[in-house]
Every structure is written in structure tokens, then in C-alpha cells.
Amino acid sequence: MDTTQDNDLKKPRTVVITGGSRGIGLATAKKFQLLGDRVIITYHNTEPSDIDKTPLGDSEDLYELTAIRCDIASTEDIDNLFSRTEKEFGACDVLVLAAGINDDSLLIRMSEEKWSKVIDTNLTSCYKATKRALPAMLKKRSGRIILISSAVAMTGNPGQTNYAATKAAMIGFGRSLAREVASRSITVNVIAPGLVDTDMLSALSREQLDALLTQVPLARVGAKEEIAAAVCFLASAEASYITGSVMAVDGGLGMGY
Ligand code: NAP
Q1: Which end of the chain has less Cβ packing within 10 Å, N or C?
Q2: How far is CA 104 from the centre of its chain?
Q3: Which residues constitute the domain of residue 166?
């Protein structure tokens, strides 16, 4: 018996990845590209010419990555992202919300500006992008939404009240939405990465990193490709019975919580 329910998500799917110019988002984009999908990535401060668009495979059949400028905190930019995507590639089948920032400070010294910037970029953007992508998914009665949260949503981290609050809220947001749209065969899942080797992690000193690694049973940082693999699985037909889940990809840091 074929238990997969998303037979209308035929390849090539239209995949939109926010924060696709670097790090986890770009690694995920290349993996979807390798699977034969049409992938639209967003960039904000990275120059388009600095985005490494080299595909992982050398097949000539692969679609080129399309990069669209989008400040994920801007409603106007988000509308433009989806309007262009729909016009050029059709409605978004898979939405991956990977854009994110941290701007750390102990709460006692955290300015309201620092607080709001992180909330707007990491959390309010999820509301805006998902709301814009959803009508087309509801109409098609299919779709995959994958939010990139963080292990700190569960563990907390000194200096990251703003960041951890957004990452924890993404879980509540995703699970509530999963319940709202399940009847239309749209799944919503969250990935909680641990320490992943990207620019975000490079802000830590060697000492800070070594201290954090003592908490990781696999005793190493993760590769961005390891997060990308989990995202692609949750977007695959094989994952059609998974919704509202939080998948820890963290070397055992949280032991699945
Ligand atoms: P990264 O290498 O620093 O990349 C961040 C991405 O977010 C970039 O593509 C950046 O685009 C984009 N971005 C930032 N502000 C934006 C804005 N206002 N509008 C649109 N895009 C914006 O970080 P990463 O490690 O790949 O992180 C990806 C996601 O994983 C984040 O949500 C992060 O919180 C989460 N995460 C990371 C780790 C880790 O250890 N690395 C662990 C847990 C969770 P531009 O460069 O074009 O500005």
C-alpha cells in the first residue's frame, strides 16, 4: 500500500528558502537542487555575486538556483518574493524558513532595539512568510513548511533571551499551524539544530565552543549538510505522516528532548 499522501508534490517542486544565501539555508538549497527541484533562495546583506551557487552534482538537468533579495522583516519584500516566485515558477510547494540572526546581550543590558530586531527577523518573519505562502498551498491541498529553530529553544543560553525566545516561539507557532492546516494535507515541522559549522557559530571563541562541545555526546559540531538532509527528508513523500514534530539534529545535545 502506498501510504504517501502528497502525490501532487511531483518533481520539480517549487521550493522557497529564506536565508538561502549562506550557511544552513544555502546547503539546503543545493540539496533540493540535487533532488531536481526548482529552488528560490533569498538574500539580504550578502551580495548576489558572493552567493556560491555551484551545484553539488554535475547533471545538466539541474535547475539553477534563483536568488531574490528579501528583507525577511519586510512585508513588502515578502510579498514581492512570493509574487515573483508564483509568476516565474508557480506556487510554493515547500517553504523552508532558515533566515535568522542573533544579537546577544545579557537581559539587564539588552536594549529594546536589540530585542525587537531579533524578534522581527526570526519570529514575525515566520508569520509574514507563512501567511503569504499559505493560500496557494490551501488551494492545492498540499504543501510542506519547515521552520529552523534551535536547541537553545529548549536549553536556554545566557545572553540569548531574545534569540531563544524566538526559537521557542517558532515551535509553538509551527505546532499550532500544523493543527490548522492538517486537514488540507499540509505538514508543518520544526528542526532544532545544535552547534552547526556556519558563520553564526564562528562568532564564538575557541574556549566558548570547547565548553559547549562538552555537552554534545557526539563531541563535534554538525555540518550544515546534516541539517539540510533532515529538511529534505521532512519535505519528502516518505515524511507525509509527520507533522507538528520537532526534530533535534544536535549530536545528542538534547537527547531528543
Ligand atoms: P548564517 O550562516 O549566519 O546565515 C544566516 C542567513 O539568514 C543568511 O542567509 C542571511 O542572509 C539571512 N538573514 C539574516 N537576516 C535576514 C533578513 N533580515 N532578511 C533576510 N535574510 C536574512 O546562519 P546559519 O547558521 O546558516 O543559520 C540558519 C538558521 O539556523 C538560523 O535561523 C539560525 O538561527 C539557525 N540555527 C543555527 C545554528 C548554528 O549553530 N549555526 C544552530 C541552531 C539554529 P544575508 O547573508 O544575505 O543577509
Answers
A1: N
A2: 21
A3: 4-241
